[in-house]
Amino acid sequence: MKITVLGTGAVGRAVAGRLDDLGHDLTMATRDLAATAGREEHTSWAEAHADVRLVPFAGSADGADLVVNALGGDIALGVLDEVGPDLVGRVLLDLSNPLDHGHGFPPRLFVKDDDSFAEQVQRAHPEALVVKTLNTMNNTVMVDPGRLGESTTVFVSGDEPSAKATVTALLRELGHTDVIDLGGLETARGPEMFLALWVRTAVALGGSDFNIKVVRGPSLPA
Question: Please, which contacts does 189-192 make with residues 24 or more away whose CB atoms are closer than 8 Å?
């Protein structure tokens, strides 16, 4: 597929790099091309992924089969507005979390309970096909779940079945074998609110190289 990844931070690099390794046609989008290209962490990454194009946000989704929102929740809506019309009809894989770091640690969620960040994205871009997934783990586990040594669980939420099927196939390419379709996009509220527990678990364990696993009883489908 032709895939555009919005964001060149650690999450964007991890996702784009792995998808590039899998043979997809990758574009990465950023606000300041010169500044991004000059960062040491990006320079070393780009040497290993020379075929990945670096472009500005505006126009970055033109011709893409799938767009990945790998931005922080605090800036993603503004950036998606810059991408704008090119999101129409595109599968938009949203892995952002609505974290508010303005009140100290642990961060709060700036949307929860009766709404989700994914739903905000969908309302802002009603003709995009938004699918929420991968937000319940760190970026290394996102792209290499096998590193944990056993199958763990990833959730998918979205209103368009074909878009969820596209994302689910991509998740399986990444190595995720237990994918639970939670239903419509409003179900993204659950995985987003899991971040409160995820942060506390990371502190208790002294690191974030973990994921959750849904262990089913004998009466439930595998």
Answer: 189/112, 189/113, 189/114, 189/115, 189/116, 189/119, 190/155, 191/132, 191/133, 191/135, 191/136, 191/155, 191/157, 192/97, 192/98, 192/109, 192/111, 192/112, 192/116, 192/117, 192/118, 192/132, 192/135
User: Which residues partner with 94 through β-bridges?
Assistant: 69, 132
Query: Going residue by residue through the chain (222 aa), what tens digit of pLDDT does each one get?
Result: 999 999 999 999 999 999 999 999 999 999 999 999 899 899 999 999 999 999 999 999 999 999 999 999 889 999 999 998 899 999 999 999 998 888 889 888 899 999 999 999 999 999 999 999 999 999 999 999 999 999 999 999 999 999 999 999 999 999 999 999 999 999 999 999 999 999 999 999 999 999 999 999 999 988
Task: Indicate yes or no: pTM above 0.85.
Answer: yes
